[in-house]
Design brief:
It contains four helices and no strands. By secondary structure, the protein is mainly α. The longest helix has 14 residues. The protein is elongated.
Length: 75
């Protein structure tokens, strides 16, 4: 397991993170490690865009059908 040091964290952010860790009954280090894990496992916008571009959309509605459905909902 790696050790990570983070510098230049504002006092306000550090205070908020400490409060959240205390509310969960965990240490600041454990709380931040958990949050960083969530961030690392979440796909980036570029990854999401790439996945969406690979999808087969031939079975879905056309752009015109979508626009018509939106217009109908607004009436």
């Amino acid at each position: 397991m790696s050790t990570l040091y983070i510098r230049d964290v504002s006092d306000d952010v550090a205070r908020i993170l400490k409060q959240r860790a205390a509310q969960e009954g965990t240490s600041l280090s454990a709380y931040v490690a958990k949050e960083l894990t969530k961030i690392a496992l979440r796909p980036t916008n570029d990854q999401i865009t790439a996945r969406l571009r690979q999808r087969d959309r031939t079975a879905g509605p056309t752009a015109q059908e979508v626009l018509e459905a939106v217009a109908a909902e607004r009436r």
